[in-house]
Amino acid sequence: MATNPNIAEYIGVNPKSGFDLARMIEDGLSSDSLPLLRKKGLTFTEVAELIISPRTLQHRQAKGVRHLTYDEADRVVRVARILLLADQTFGNPEKALGWLREPDDRLNNRTALSLLKTESGGRLVEEMLWQIREGMFS
Q1: What is the pLDDT of residues 39-49, one digit of tens each?
Q2: Per-residue DSSP letter, 30
Q3: What CA–CA distances, in Å, run from 8 to 4, 65, 81?
């Protein structure tokens, strides 16, 4: 299974396969992936809520640790995949972020972005985006 080459714009590395990506996550992505997500439109607060607190990040960097844990790296990739899929679905990063940030009654008035804290939530959001792409929802 090849991974989408555009994911590199979101995480800073270009895995050659799904297995390669899994290995990169296990090894821990560089914390340099966090500013890339910010460049793609996530706010400082969103990165802190979804991936890692600023205090934890500062503490690690002060100790010279530049890699995220595999759980944090996994969250980076989850968020990046959803941002990429939303951008592709809506054809516009601003529309994509607008949809991700808008409370949705199908999600009990939660935002799609808030669900990305967990793998189950990420899968639900991904499924919704595919449904929108197929014309099932708006």
Answers
A1: 999 999 999 99
A2: B
A3: 8, 22, 10
